[in-house]
Amino acid sequence: MKQKMKQWLGALLSIALILGLMPGMSLTAYAAGAYNDYLVTTDANKNKSGEGLTALQVKFNEKPWYIIADNSTAVDAGTVTLLAADTSFGTSAFDSTAPYSRAYSGSTVKSKLDALTAEGDSFAGVKDAIVDTDLTDVSVTGAKLYLLSTDEAGNVPDNVRKFSTAWWLRSPGDNDSRAAFVWGEDGRVYGYGTEVGGGYGVRPALKLNLSSVIFESGTNTFSLKPAYSVTLSSGANATTSGGTTSQTGLTGAMTTVTYTANTGYYFAEFTDITDNGITATRTSSTVVTVSGTPTSDATITVPDAVEKTAAIVTKAPTAKSLTYTGQAQGLVNAGEAENGTIQYALGTATEATQPYTTSIPTATDAGTYYVWYKAVGDDKHIDSESACITVTIEDNKNTGNSGTIEPVVDQKGNTPKAEVEGLDEELATNVMTDDEKNKVKIDASTGFYSGLKISQKNGKIKVSWDKGEDASKYAVYAAYCGNKFASKPVKTTKSTSATFKKINGKKIDFSKNLKIYVTAYDASGKKIGNTVSAHFAGKNNKKYKNPKAVKLTTTALTIEVGKSAKVKASVKMESGKKIALNDAHCAKLRYKTTNKKIATVDKNGNVTGVAAGTCEVYVYSKNGLAMKCTVTVK
User: Fold this and answer.
1) What single DSSP character describes residue 431?
2) Do residues 342 and 482 both lie within one domain?
3) Is 456 found in the same domain as 323?
4) pLDDT tens profile 184-193
């Protein structure tokens, strides 16, 4: 049984061998490429000779070649490798310069092949169609035309290796002065090599980029693809980058041109514009790109960028009616916009000083705020003009500012005595008319005029003042702005300064706004008067800053009785981008006379002579800094 099985298997093997020798009946499987009919390494072609072998030759750059590798259908390849089929490249020494070397990288024959693609030489016009090839075995990169290695030559069938003369390979021989070669008569590869100074045939190979050429099967010829041009027009109101708007001599893809709309312009939507392989695409409202590979001369008219119109505020935001609560409150009711989004920013009466955002601004402290708004346009519209809303957070309590006013109306004759609530010295000085003041009994406590100097350090506040006339004791009162002063002082002292670190029994919150005033007493304990109330920002406040100094243009005035002159003053603020406390706390500058019987002063610093004599007019900043002007009335 075993003997019969062996006989049967032997018969099958014999049949297979016979079939393998018959034309067209090869059992060898291979992946067919687009140029498989010309590939010399296939079983169908590797034994051809004479006219059959010659028929496999292709032409490129007017020279005959054999296709020794077909990667035309390989992923990310698209090449064929060609080997010179004739002797038109002549002969050369491998290395003709002593000391002779077998290193291909510096060889004479390599230099000869490299020169063929130089400007003006025979392969200069087609070099862009030849792939740069790295020859890692001999440390050469970017070769255009090159010699085969012994391994590569070994993969070429004998019928193609045979040549009219011996020809060089790039592989080194068995010593420093020998290089490998192929003996043309029989196609044998000699790896041990021969002396590099001898003159052997030059038979280069090259890798052809099929995307740069076309193949004419009737003549078996590879030729460069025809060169095309791309012309772009229009695209007004935009700036181009990348390639030029007129590109010529293109055998492959054009250099992409990008149109970017100028500021205030945009590209309206459009469907892709295509002509002979070139396409203009709107990639965003401000960008159009033109790209592609021309199949013929192409002309594209790029749409012009269109000028943006302004977004519209269809419903303006409105101010809220607010009262101090101690918590942050939204300042306005939201607005609405068309072709954009309403955005808001806090600022001054003349401009926005903070960034615009979609969030409605909030504030905590009592005071006046300026909310700016505008419609920020979408990608097809510009922003609208900005506008401002004034919003006030009212103080809900009597803040106990400096200088008390007795809530009593002078009793005239038999008229009943009446009380007046909510008055203080600053209200009387800065708001009431002289006639109104005469109707209200005001104990302005004008005997203590000192300014206040306040410093904040190490979790403490230090306040200092000038010694008041006849004063022997002082009481310091402090509170957060928006809150009433406590009846109990934070400090009492016989000195002209005091330091404290708590308000209402708790550590000071330096992120808030604060206020301070000082009361002076004589030796008997009788109250002499109060300083002005100093309003100031805590050192950790992220929004507000404080005055640094008060300046006067003159420190002396002389006026006549009944005449007026102005005390001109200014405030120098701390540096930085923070803003000053608003006037809801107190006026930017406050004025006080030491003797109203000699001269009076109004809230704007206008001094009026009442009777002959001399007095002082003090000018105070929000935080209590003071300067004085001597007034002489004649």
Assistant:
1) T
2) no
3) no
4) 999 999 999 9
